[in-house]
């Protein structure tokens, strides 16, 4: 797949190859299509019998299904779900428009909610009824693939929510510097067009920019470290998806046999141990009052970690996990936006004008990013049409719960929210299938105009309502409710800097001009 960043201003060109899939999961697990089929067939029969006799089908009989529900036949649906989840979900929404439904995943039934009223209910339900952690663990066996210390002690979450988000005004210039350097390294300026593999190149740029605030420079530029953080995430997913195929009693053994994760942590320690040692030494000499203390995630982790979490091994594994949640998600999101930009180059001019005008007034700062409404709108519109997954907001029901439409979801049910229904709702979004890069900027202006007309003193709510960081039933790309992505404030800054840099520095076009490469999904893509 391809885009080009071009000659007009002596700019280089960015042109990813046509064969490159847009879904990381398609290649990311390191499994070929046939491997996936063989593994799934092997696991299929064991799980089919187990799940059927565990009575899951019986317990969820009252939830409509499109297609067969009997054992064996339901697995035809499950295989379709793996390779064509997006269309399976859309078909279900069309055929069962007024109620939740269930789809056969290879490993279980998955109940899908798409009615906006019920999605609001999901958002409000407490962790005691709907668990996000159990859903992550179930999908990717995080207990094994990441380690139980991460699952049982998620102390990184408040750090992402508070320290990272609050430090953004200080961090933005550093992220901008890293983005500029990384683009110069990977797509150096030339007089002509340069062909670039988008996903692969953006992955390295995102990994560098993210690690500038995770571990700081110069480590964020070390090619072996960058290769490790990208590869580690792939290993975690490969291990997690494979472990799901065997009964729980066999998982510790299989994990010990197939996991590369401990090897990844050991490789990471080679890079990180000297950094930890230097930071500890500095702390011993200067104490808490050190005014030159590094402002990065590693420092916050070292400050907050308790007990065994303070060891090099635990700190390294937590930093690799942060890379796992941050780098692939941001790369996928940015690559989609880049493809839209390449497919609709008419947006280059209005985006460029906005960036140049705002940067002239505020420099490359957080204030400037907050004023880049067109850039924000462009990425958000891309997320609306191409979120990370067709099903998001994954939760496990911990206690039997009756929804307001009278549907009972028994304990143990795996539920998700379908993105197409609300993201493509014609009542919210005019001409919803069309890509309109300035859609949210226009919606914001309209709402702000109306609010200011009715009361010139208000308008604060409208100001942020259409921003990328704001989650709602109509904008599910970052999830919803108390477990909505806490890293979205940082991710938004990083991706806006990247897009703003691309539009002022490059021209861009697709190898196959005007034709946006088709998406490829593995199951529902990212959890
Ligand atoms: C564009 C980039 C990103 C996208 C689209 C994205 C999307 C998501 C989604 C959909 C979820 C699940 C939300 C839910 O279930 O309701 C999530 C969770 C999470 N994300 Fe992100 N994410 C991105 C970047 C990041 C970054 C950069 C970080 C860290 C700096 C991060 C940290 C996390 C964490 C820690 C969770 C788990 C939250 C919890 O369990 O409460 N994400 N993300």
Give the topology.
Elements: H1 24-28, H2 33-53, H3 56-59, H4 73-95, E1 101-104, E2 109-113, H5 116-124, E3 130-131, H6 132-140, H7 142-145, H8 148-152, H9 156-166, H10 168-186, H11 198-214, H12 223-243, H13 251-258, H14 261-286, H15 297-304, H16 312-343, H17 348-362, H18 366-371, H19 373-385, E4 391-397, E5 401-402, E6 408-409, E7 414-418, H20 419-423, H21 439-454, H22 460-465, H23 488-505
Parallel strand pairs: 2-7
Antiparallel strand pairs: 1-2, 3-4, 4-7, 5-6
Helix pairs in contact: 10-11, 10-23, 11-12, 11-16, 12-14, 12-16, 14-16, 16-19, 16-23
The chain binds protoporphyrin IX containing FE (HEM).
In total, how many beta strands? 7
Could you give the distance between the termini? 24 Å
Tell me the series of helices and strands, N- to C-terminal: HHHHEEHEHHHHHHHHHHHHHHEEEEHHHH
Order of the strands making up the biggest sheet:
1-2-7-4-3
Bound chemical compounds: protoporphyrin IX containing FE
Helix percentage range: 55-70%
CATH architecture name? Orthogonal Bundle
Query: Which secondary-structure class do the elements indicate?
Result: mainly alpha
What is the CATH topology classification name? Cytochrome p450
Would you identify the regions where 5 or more consecutive residues have pLDDT less than 50? 1-31
Count of separate DSSP helical elements: 23
What does this structure look like?
It holds the Pfam family p450. The chain crosses the membrane at residues 24-53. Keywords: Heme, Iron, Membrane, Metal-binding, Monooxygenase, Oxidoreductase, Transmembrane, Transmembrane helix. One of its GO terms (molecular function) is iron ion binding. This protein has 527 residues and is mainly alpha-helical. The chain has a single domain (7-505), classed as Cytochrome p450, CATH 1.10.630.10. The protein has helices at residues 24-28, 33-53, 56-59, 73-95, 116-124, 132-140, 142-145, 148-152, 156-166, 168-186, 198-214, 223-243, 251-258, 261-286, 297-304, 312-343, 348-362, 366-371, 373-385, 419-423, 439-454, 460-465, 488-505, and strands at 101-104, 109-113, 130-131, 391-397, 401-402, 408-409, 414-418. Strands 1-2-7-4-3 form a five-stranded mixed β-sheet. Strands 5-6 form a two-stranded antiparallel sheet. Helix 10 (168-186) packs across helix 23 and helix 12 (223-243) packs across helix 14. Mean pLDDT is 86; it is low at 1-31. The protein binds protoporphyrin IX containing FE (HEM). Protoporphyrin IX containing FE (HEM) binds at residues 132, 157, 160, 325-326, 329-330, 333, 388, 392-394, 477-480, 483-488, 490-491.
């Amino acid at each position: 797949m391809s885009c080009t960043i071009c000659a007009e201003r002596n700019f280089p060109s960015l042109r990813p190859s046509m064969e490159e899939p847009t879904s990381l999961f398609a290649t990311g697990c390191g499994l070929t299509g046939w491997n996936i089929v063989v593994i799934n067939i092997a696991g299929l029969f064991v799980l089919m019998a187990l799940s059927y006799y565990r009575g899951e089908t019986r317990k969820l009989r009252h939830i409509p299904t499109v297609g067969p529900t009997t054992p064996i036949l339901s697995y035809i649906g499950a295989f379709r779900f793996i390779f064509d989840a997006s269309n399976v979900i859309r078909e279900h929404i069309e055929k069962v428009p007024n109620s939740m439904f269930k789809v056969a995943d290879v490993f279980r039934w998955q109940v899908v909610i798409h009615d906006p009223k019920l999605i609001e209910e999901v958002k409000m339900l407490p962790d005691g009824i709907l668990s996000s952690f159990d859903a992550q663990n179930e999908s990717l066996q995080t207990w094994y693939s990441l380690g139980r210390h991460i699952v049982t002690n998620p102390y990184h979450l408040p750090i992402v929510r508070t320290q990272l988000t609050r430090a953004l005004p200080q961090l933005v210039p550093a992220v901008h510097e890293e983005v500029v350097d990384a683009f110069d390294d990977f797509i150096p300026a030339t007089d002509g067009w340069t062909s670039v593999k988008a996903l692969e190149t953006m992955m390295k740029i995102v990994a560098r920019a993210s690690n500038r605030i995770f571990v700081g420079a110069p480590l964020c530029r070390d090619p072996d470290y960058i290769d490790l953080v990208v590869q580690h995430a792939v290993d975690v997913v490969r291990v997690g998806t494979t472990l799901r195929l065997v009964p729980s009693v066999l998982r510790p053994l299989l994990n010990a046999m197939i996991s590369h994760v401990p090897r990844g942590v050991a490789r990471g320690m080679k890079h990180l141990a000297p950094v930890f040692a230097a930071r500890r030494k500095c702390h011993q000499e200067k104490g808490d009052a050190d005014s030159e203390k590094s402002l990065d995630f590693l420092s916050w982790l070292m400050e907050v970690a308790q007990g065994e979490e303070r060891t090099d091994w635990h700190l390294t594994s937590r930093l690799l996990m942060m890379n796992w949640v941050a780098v692939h998600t941001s790369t996928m999101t940015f690559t989609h936006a880049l493809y839209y930009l390449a497919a609709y180059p008419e947006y280059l001019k209005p985006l460029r004008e906005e960036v140049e005008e705002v940067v002239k007034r505020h420099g490359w700062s957080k204030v400037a990013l907050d004023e880049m409404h067109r850039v924000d709108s462009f990425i958000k519109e891309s997320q609306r049409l191409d979120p990370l997954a067709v099903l998001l907001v994954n939760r496990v029901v911990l206690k039997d719960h009756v929804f307001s439409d009278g549907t009972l979801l028994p304990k143990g049910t795996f539920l998700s929210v379908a993105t197409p229904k609300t993201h493509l709702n014609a009542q919210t979004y005019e001409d919803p299938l069309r890509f309109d890069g300035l859609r949210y900027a226009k919606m914001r202006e309209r709402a702000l105009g109306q609010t200011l007309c009715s009361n010139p003193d208000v308008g604060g709510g409208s100001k942020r309502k259409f921003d990328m960081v704001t989650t709602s039933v109509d904008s599910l790309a970052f999830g919803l409710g108390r477990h909505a992505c806490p890293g979205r404030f940082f991710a938004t800054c990083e991706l806006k800097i990247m897009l703003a840099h691309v539009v002022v520095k490059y021209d861009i076009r697709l190898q196959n001009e005007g034709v946006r490469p088709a998406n490829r999904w593995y199951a529902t893509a990212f959890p």
